[in-house]
UniProtKB/TrEMBL annotation:
<dbReference type="Pfam" id="PF00144">
    <property type="entry name" value="Beta-lactamase"/>
</dbReference>
<keyword id="KW-0732">Signal</keyword>
<dbReference type="InterPro" id="IPR012338">
    <property type="entry name" value="Beta-lactam/transpept-like"/>
</dbReference>
<dbReference type="InterPro" id="IPR050491">
    <property type="entry name" value="AmpC-like"/>
</dbReference>
<protein>
    <recommendedName>
        <fullName>Beta-lactamase-related domain-containing protein</fullName>
    </recommendedName>
</protein>
<dbReference type="InterPro" id="IPR001466">
    <property type="entry name" value="Beta-lactam-related"/>
</dbReference>
<feature type="domain" description="Beta-lactamase-related">
    <location>
        <begin position="39"/>
        <end position="360"/>
    </location>
</feature>
<feature type="signal peptide">
    <location>
        <begin position="1"/>
        <end position="20"/>
    </location>
</feature>
């Protein structure tokens, strides 16, 4: 009953909603979410938004297989870590109102937290540079199961008992769901509201996200809610295994509501004010001034969002994953385009589908430039040797010429094995851009060899 009253309140507070575009079989994005192998299967909702309006929405699969309820633009999915930008919005909003400062130590608001080797600030929590341990891994190590098996209070109490951090706060980056759970508790104590109530009424409602909400304990049956599924013995089994509280995750949202989110970010600015925008899109910094960089894609971590350059475009993005749920949100400021996908199946890669959607709708496409061929000339000052690589099928021929006088070239044949080429004496792992490779043997590892300057135009 409480949920029903809150929902009616959000409807009353919400601005004029964005016009939603119903999914269409003629939509060029429809192929990206259609399972051609299984008619009865979970699926995804995919949206492309331009200048605050839903441009294309494609949806396929079932939100609830047992009930044969199809996915559409209003289906609610668990957003997993895509939720983090909404936690960051709450923090940024309170900071812009002067109710907290990102430079404040977290113990100012959570005095029961232990003191660590160095101060932990809200800024460090926001940018994953605090070293605070991840509560999901702590729950498993404590024998308490997954986040879905535990309450917010249990997870928070476990975090409060940690006497140490993963590293000296401010000196490194390590993604932490624990840091964002602490931020949610800070929002609750500063605002005097539960974290869920604050986000639902002060962040989501003003943007017109009237169907979306942050969970606050296990929920009753909600209309058009997607179950998560994993394939098991040729069938799809339900896996609604996610925490039922907010902070690091906890957001239930739809593609049509994410169109409204993009509208506020780019046009309305009811929540995305200038001050909030600055906090959300400014990369974090380590104590020595270096930017906080996410290692897998080399993007900087800002307010619950990764920012930087990818495939020749400025991007603002974040992914989410929770066993059977996959999500991805990306905004390309220069192109004025956003794309989002929400899936309730474990076997599809949300990020790749977003890239494929952007490649289809951008005039010049959206794809990483093709790397130069692996074949070519390379050199190593460490080994004082030059290398000529040639490739035929799965066999890489490596001709090594020592720079020492009086030496003759030596030829090695290496066989491809996944991402490496393996030989009797060493293995060779090419960099993604084929500008270098790494040599490893049983007793000597990590020797980088770079493409020579004369060959760099390849």
């Amino acid at each position: 009953m409480m949920f029903k009253y809150r929902y009616l309140l959000w409807l009353a507070l919400a601005p004029c909603p964005v016009q939603a575009v119903p999914p269409s079989p003629e939509n060029p994005l429809q192929v990206l979410v259609t399972d051609n192998d299984q008619a009865i299967a979970p699926g995804c909702a995919l949206g492309v938004f331009r200048q605050g309006q839903a441009d294309q929405i494609a949806a396929a699969g079932y939100a609830d297989i047992a009930r044969r309820q199809p996915i559409d633009g209003d289906t609610l999915f668990y957003a997993a870590s895509v939720s983090k930008q909404f936690t960051a919005l709450a923090v940024a909003q309170l900071a812009s109102q002067g109710q907290l400062s990102l430079d404040d130590e977290v113990q100012r608001y959570l005095p029961e937290l232990p003191r660590y080797d160095a101060p932990v600030t809200l800024d460090m929590l926001l940018h994953h540079s605090s070293g605070v341990r991840d509560f999901l891994s702590l729950l498993r190590m404590a024998g308490l199961g997954s986040g879905a098996d535990n309450s917010r209070d249990t997870a928070l109490a476990l975090l409060m008992r940690q006497r140490g951090t993963n590293f000296v706060p401010g000196t490194d980056y390590l993604y932490s769901n624990g840091g964002y759970l602490l931020l949610a508790e800070v929002v609750a104590r500063v605002s005097g509201m539960s974290f869920a109530d604050y986000v639902n009424t002060r962040v989501l409602a003003p943007m017109g996200m009237t169907r979306s909400y942050v969970m606050q304990g296990r929920q009753a049956d909600v209309q058009n809610l997607a179950h998560g599924y994993v394939e098991q013995d040729g069938e799809f089994a339900v896996r609604d295994s996610y925490p039922h509280f907010g902070g690091s995750g906890g957001l239930m949202t739809s593609i049509n509501d994410l169109a409204r989110y993009q509208r506020d970010m780019t046009l309305q600015h009811r929540v995305w004010t200038d001050d909030v925008r600055r906090i959300m899109l400014t990369p974090g910094r380590l104590s020595d001034g270096r930017p906080v960089i996410h290692p897998s894609d080399q993007l900087a971590y800002a307010g619950g969002l990764l920012v930087g350059q990818r495939n020749g475009q400025r991007v603002v993005q974040h992914s989410g994953s929770a066993e059977a749920f996959k999500a991805f949100y990306a905004y390309l400021p220069d192109a004025g385009v956003s794309a989002a996908i929400l899936c309730n199946r474990a076997d599809w890669n949300a990020g790749r589908k977003i890239d494929a959607a952007l490649a289809r709708i951008l005039p010049d496409g959206f794809a990483a430039p093709a790397p130069p061929p692996l074949a070519g000339r390379y050199g190593s000052d460490e080994l004082q040797a030059d290398y000529q690589l040639s490739l035929q099928g799965e066999v890489l021929t490596v001709v090594v010429q020592s720079r020492l006088p009086g030496t003759a070239p030596v030829t090695f044949l290496l066989q491809k094995d996944q991402q490496q080429y393996q030989g009797k004496s060493f293995s060779l792992t090419p960099a993604d851009d084929h500008r270098s490779f790494v040599l490893d043997s049983d007793r000597s590892r990590g020797i980088r060899v770079d493409r020579t300057e004369a060959d760099s135009r390849r």
